[in-house]
């Protein structure tokens, strides 16, 4: 499994994303679905190069008759990866999404503390991020809501919540499971239209054929808002670049990837010329913007 090439993009995304750090002691939340099975397998492939200590945890909500099947999948995956598994049962008192989520995170946090883990990792992906941002928009949320799910945030005393797969589509995660012959369960509650998130998911599914880059665009917008709200150094660099380009109206709308290339050069202290759009370039000298020019 460790030497397989299919799905290497997932492992690279985890390594480069920054949600998990070298030496983390990680409790991987494994529901038995394709997303969490792919996360467990990817982190298992990275435990040596990233010096990770891994355990799996499965939360049984005890809400449907097929819940034992999900638990069996999680147990099989743990055995296949030779990782210890902690099975947790919660009683949330109903099917409402928010109480279930809170009970699930509380159980995972308690398990992490008991097992000596400093991180709980979940398998939220790009489509989940799109749904979260749209739900926040429909609630009338401000910038804190529109930032979506954060890649890493505090969960409990001494424990952080990490989401290493936020930039990846669910299809890629399923393919990763198929390539490694790993089983996964399908949650029938994902098709219940009474749940608001499922209704939003259906609407987004109808839009994706018309806007193929929808999830990538939403994830990028959420990342930009989040970094801006946190006053992250990268956000300051983006603002500096756009300030230099804002002097002329036609230079304001620059492709994101061109801005990010210049941001990486500023971060690394490099020197070079970066083309912002046809006929327009930005000159960086030793990590500082020197001029904007035209060809």
* Structural classification: alpha/beta
Q: What name does the CATH topology of the largest domain carry?
A: Rossmann fold
The number of helical elements comes to 11
CATH architecture of the largest domain, by name, is 3-Layer(aba) Sandwich
Mean pLDDT across residues: 89
Total E-strand runs: 9
Distance between the termini: 51 Å
The largest β sheet comes out as: 6 strands, mixed
Indicate how many domains the architecture comprises: 2
Taken as a percent bin, the fraction of beta residues is 15-25%
Under CATH, the homologous superfamily of the largest domain reads: HUPs
Measured as a percent range, the helix fraction is 40-55%
Strand order of the largest sheet: 3-2-1-4-6-5
Using only C-alpha atoms, the radius of gyration works out to 21 Å
Written as H for each helix and E for each strand, in order along the chain, the element string is: HEHEHEHEHHEEHHHHHEEE
Main CATH class of the largest domain: Alpha Beta
Low-confidence stretches: none
Shape: globular
